[in-house]
Amino acid sequence: MEYTLFGNRMDRMPDFAFKGMAFLFLFWDFFREITSQFSRRLARFGIESGHTVIDYGCGPGGYLKAASNLVGQHGKVYAVDIHPLAIEAVRKKTAKYGLANVYPLLTNSYHCALEEQAADVIYALDMFHMVKDPNAFLRECHRLLKKEGHLIIDDGHQSRNKTKQKITGSELWKIAEETRDHLRCTPLT
Q: pLDDT for 81-102, tens place per residue?
């Protein structure tokens, strides 16, 4: 049971920390301003109706309603997390809001039980700093993403330089766009 946070070395946060984060997201759900910010942020990721999207490291599912709306009834959103409490929170959220196109998926280490090239877009928000083995994580994202798809990663609690070093060091991704909020990456062949 090894944890660290801003010094990284963490794949899964302790239960108490996850519950605190889930409470904050529940609190934010009461304020439309915050949830509309989630919608505006996802709208910049190129998610379209009919897409298959992976919310990797979904946590309590703060972005799921917005992603569900963007992909529409013919699209899919896979809410993937390593923490069982995250999957439980996602199941509750999908039932509460009737998100029929959202599928919670507990991952085992870095392997996600989806077929190759399943996703048009993968986004990993506020979690990359907790990934102990970024190469394994980025390799799995590469396996899951369609060749014309893109991966969106933000820095979380690490410097932009560290994020970029991890991505380019994997030799699997090209950073196609850099904004203040995130990096858009395309797979190298």
A: 999 999 999 999 999 999 999 9
pLDDT at 12 over 80: no
Topology at the third CATH level for domain 15-187:
Rossmann fold (3.40.50)
Confidence of residue 38 (pLDDT cuts 50, 70, 90): confident
- Max Cα distance, the chain (Å): 44
What tokens were used for 98?
Answer: 């009737």
Does residue 33 carry a pLDDT above 50?
no
Domain extents in the chain? 15-187
pTM, entire model: 0.83
Residue with tokens 């703060």: 62
> CA 189 to CA 175: how far, in whole Å?
14
d(CA 181, CA 155): 8
